[in-house]
Amino acid sequence: MKMAGIAKSSEGWHWTPSGGLVAGIPSKGVIQPSQNIKQSDAVFDVIVIGAGYTGLTATRDLTTSGVKTLLLEGRDRIGGRTWSSNIDGYPYEMGGTWVHWFQPHVYRELSRYGMINELVHSTDFTKKHNYFSFATRSGRRTMSHEEEDEMFSRAMQKFVNVDGNFGKTVMPFPFDAYWNKNVLKYANLSVADRIAQIRHDLSEDERHAIESFVLLCSGGTAQNSAFLDFLRWWAAGNYDYRTLLDTIIVFKLKCGQSEFARRFFNEALATSNLAYSFNTVISRVDSTNNTVRVTTRDGRAFQAKRVICTAPLNVLSKIAFNPPLLAEKTEASKLKHVNQCVKVHAEIKDPEMRSWSGVTYPDNKLVIGLADGKTPAGYTHCVFFGCDANHIHAEENIDETLKAVKKFAPMDVNRLVFHNWSKDEFAEGAWVWYRPGMEVKYLEALRRRQGAVLFANSDWAAGGWRSFIDGAIQSGTEAALTVRGELRGESRASHL
């Protein structure tokens, strides 16, 4: 495994037939030195907790505005649930990957950093194995990608057509999802509930198509995944299966997401307004006094006028807050969202697999796989997804993981690369997907600030691309704007 001067993160896993399973993989997102704090007793303007895209955006926007900011992160790297490992000259995306010009906040940042030309297609339908394999309990068969798209499109239209207009009437504005209050009648509906409503209109193939695709999106089960979340994704993808697919799993950055995240961090660092500390786990946030006091697991304490906390929903309750979190916040964090996505990368020796994709459902530990690129060695890079239904911890039994990969098609696997998000202490899951009823009950409370502490995260960002990189950037932008305005107001008031 060549690192070419790239630092190794303690996170992630890498397996090869000759080297076996190794913990820790190289990433451009690793920050060295891990801290640059010169005065631990200083009172900062803002402390940002978490260096995912929300925290990075907030930090960048604050520091470039002259705001003295301290960034604290429990990991050894930036990116949070989005990071790439650079192995033998190729970026393997451990978490968030695909972006699109339909995602306005992402595209603005790509434009800002001159990275528009970094966008590349994950798909390439020019190779020999140019087909889709579909394996269910009814058997295994192959079809063309055109037939694949037709089947999935037909099935998804039936799934979302609650209003006779494929969702356009009930959710005309995905960034204001409750604009039509009639949508709230679906708030408590699970994916399984919705499938049951239309079961008489579905073929077995269509039902398997719906379940496999939606579980790719939710990372949960049909029973615990909210239908409303999918309806919002569908609306954001312009009410069209092919367009939705383009926005969520087709266009990625050839340089890797960690290189993109670096642009935010480096711009903030260049201002000289940024102090930071990585490998720094937050244990307590006390905002009962004039300044907010943030205490770390190793006993250090830092102070600031404001705090932006970007801890994800599933781990928010791990931090002790004084005053305590709102009851709804605590309840939601303990209930947790459902996404326990399993994402496994495989380098396949056959270069002709570059045009392949497939589904094996419901009896495999991995549900969907697709060719996602070509490595410098000329091999095919495939990525596979599993969910909480028939869940797997990929590192616990590599033979079982390889078996799950090879259930899709005959494959000579040269390497596996992955990150276990379910066991990740700073995430305990992947991107957000709510349980039925959870969004409507808790979303506003999760967004609500508590005194000098603001809560920003893609898990509860405004509608549209919530749970995406785009939502994270949006949430960080809004939090920074709020804090910057308040601090400027305080500064003006102090001179009156």
Automatic annotation (TrEMBL):
Domain of life per record: Eukaryota
Amino-acid positions noted as binding FAD in the UniProt annotation, renumbered to this chain: T54
Domain Amine oxidase stretches: 54-480
Pfam family, one: Amino_oxidase
An annotated Gene Ontology molecular function: monoamine oxidase activity
InterPro entries membership: Amino_oxidase, FAD/NAD-bd_sf, Flavin_amine_oxidase, Flavin_MAO
Reaction it catalyzes: a secondary aliphatic amine + O2 + H2O = a primary amine + an aldehyde + H2O2
Enzyme class: oxidoreductase
EC number of this enzyme: 1.4.3.-
Keywords: FAD, Flavoprotein, Oxidoreductase
Cofactor (UniProt): FAD
Keyword Oxidoreductase in annotation: yes
Family: Belongs to the flavin monoamine oxidase family.
Protein name: Amine oxidase
Protein source organism: Exophiala oligosperma
